Amino acid sequence: MTGTPPRAATAPGRTPTNLTQGGKTKAGIGESTLRPDGTLKVTGEFAYSSDMWHEDMLWGFTLRSTVAHAEIRSIDTAEALATPGVYSVLTYDDLPTDVKNYGLEIQDTPVLAHGKVRHHGEPVALVAADHPETARRAAAKIKIDYAELPVVTDEASATAEGAPLVHENRTDHHIGHVPHPNIVHRQPIIRGDADEAAKKADVIVSGEYVFGMQDQAFLGPESGLAVPGEDGGVDLYVATQWLHSDLRQIAPVLGLPEEKVRMTLSGVGGAFGGREDLSMQIHACLLALRTGKPVKIVYNRFESFFGHVHRHPAKLWYEHGATKDGKLTHLKCRIVLDGGAYASASPAVVGNASSLAVGPYAVEDVDIEAIALYSNNPPCGAMRGFGAVQACFAYEAQMDKVARKLGLDPVEFRQLNAMEQGTLMPTGQPVDSPAPVAELLRRVKAMPLPPEQQWLTAGAGADVRALPGGLSNTTHGEGVVRGVGYAVGIKNVGFSEGFDDYSTARVRMEVVGGEPVATVHTAMAEVGQGGVTVHAQIARTELGVQQVTIQPADTQVGSAGSTSASRQTYVTGGAVKNTCEHVREQVLDLGRRKFGTYHPAWATAELLLEGGKVVTDGGEVLATLADVLEDAAVDLELEWRHRPTEPFDLRTGQGNGHVQYSFAAHRAVVEVDTELGLVKVIELACAQDVGKALNPLSVVGQIQGGTTQGLGVAVMEEIIVDPKTAKVRNPSFTDYLIPTILDTPTIPVDVLELADEHAPYGLRGIGEAPTLSSTPAVLAAIRNATGLELNKTPVRPEHLTGT
């Protein structure tokens, strides 16, 4: 605990002034307060990281490999260095220390390639110049002699006898537990006896499923500004998801102590997991320290596709058994995730995929295996709902298949097998908070269906945008069939498997201009999730002040952890709440010392801070905060942790690996032109338990955003990698399609609030769960319309027409 103690108290018998009626603090927890950055963003006035500018700054550029797997025979930078306007060209040999790799968990990613490249688009050289186009032209003059090597692109080529090793001489802690060096991590989950349980099944259904590689597709490209300091250090302004994780990886490469690498969060234009790994951070710092000038790097969209990790593509095999009355008997599954050339978050993705592979269902006997591969495909890592998204696509397809084989309604079949509070996860961990899976399905099914084939009643005024194909004007209603599909999913909240998941908050309370003001300082990365809004709401609720200032996030305060895993409102919100509570107690102690003899309630009553005043729980005002504080300040910085978790057993997968679970259910309504293979998603309704809606408007926005990303991977989003060369074929928004406003349907949301007693305010992390079930719901609706099996994402026209 650090902080500035209050000044010495005045005489205990002092009488407080301005004792008017107490009033509730506005814009606290549970209210839909507006985002402080909202207006600036919609008017185009918000400063993103790519907007930063510094006098006399240079522009950095990264030269990337044009092949996926090759030896680097030589690099010739002479012509690039001779280009007018170029200040520096760096390769691996110019790195300042012996620390030349970085990584979230496994430090296997080179700052710049040395000896070989392992994937298409790997950074090889850096250029700093006085203009961005000068830097690009100079980089194009660098001559690299590659000797191409065979590529590893799937499980067969990765584990074949004599397969090329993506990483030779591995020493990471996973290598002793995997069957092949090209497997990053393996996690089995064994509970009960699946083979014996299968004998009790009246029906057994199996299926193979393929989930495509999805891009986070954030609109703000990777960017940042590095400014060399007079002390030999560097100030880095960057869009990221985890300032302190970046710092931990950057400082050793630069050969600087962490206190000399000062990081400040700049405006972030979306993240969704893609900014959890480093991109241009080290590169900008290297160039700034080498040239002695500020260096700005901004990726264009082509570079961005190579500059961050993507969602793991996956192949999944599932088998379910059920009795004739609809009870699941067992589950067997095998999940193969392609992690690409470097580990990134692959071990954690494996842990999620395996531990959540059963879905939100009660199944006693399971046999699960999940692995992540090393390959020469693009690196894959964190993306919204990681691991759980791929599994949900497969197990929900299975639920429909089993229900159909039993002749049962797919929703009722799910409800019959739904987990509830007290159910054991396949890891043996009890679900110790509400798990309203059956209720969410009931709610989403009960929502009114949209009118069918709306264009038929519109006559000449029919809007072509309501038809499959939209403005392409290819469909006029013939051959269009409606389908309805359901899905439900389960996602863990927070970091798992024994990770020390904590956050830090500094809170200062003082009087400014006669009014009490709270200042909140955390290192939380605001990436669009609304944390800055919620932190102010928490401070108002706990401290009873109207004026709250949110300090810019930087590394001058302790770590807030990553803005990922639906954890920030839970963990950093919990840290802000905890620090505010301690600040409140110090303020009340100060009040007791000042006014303790004025009123007995100071010693006997439950005291609250509301409306800028100290009040009893009965509403009686004892003093104003301005009187209590005067010119003193209470300033504390504290860490806060959720309940501990533990690693999964490497042989059985048993263990209390997660701290909380979140649940969402979707109903998709689609209309499909079966002749042309065109799909129009009419509605994508969602019901989700959020525990407690701290900001209801933001909650609905998060649910609708996650739903839309799930829609994208269902019908359009996929990074296409050539299976022969491992090169990316579509690194642009021309060829990689994401949903626009014309593709996004109505998304009605039903919010359920069942408090988790273990969480601050009873809240539940919300950002990822809707990304899980929206995808399989859309696929289920298309299957319902067409009768096709459709076991791959995304669904393309040729999958529907057979052409």
From TrEMBL:
Segments for region (Disordered): 1-36
SMART domains with a match to the protein in the record: Ald_Xan_dh_C
Domain of life, source organism: Bacteria
InterPro entries in alphabetical order: Ald_Oxase/Xan_DH_a/b, Ald_Oxase/Xan_DH_a/b_sf, Ald_Oxase/xanthine_DH-like, AldOxase/xan_DH_MoCoBD1, AldOxase/xan_DH_MoCoBD2, AldOxase/xan_DH_Mopterin-bd_sf
Segments forming domain Aldehyde oxidase/xanthine dehydrogenase a/b hammerhead: 43-150
A Gene Ontology molecular function term of the record: iron ion binding
Comp. bias regions, Low complexity: 1-17
Listed name of the protein: Oxidoreductase
Organism for this UniProt entry: Streptomyces glebosus
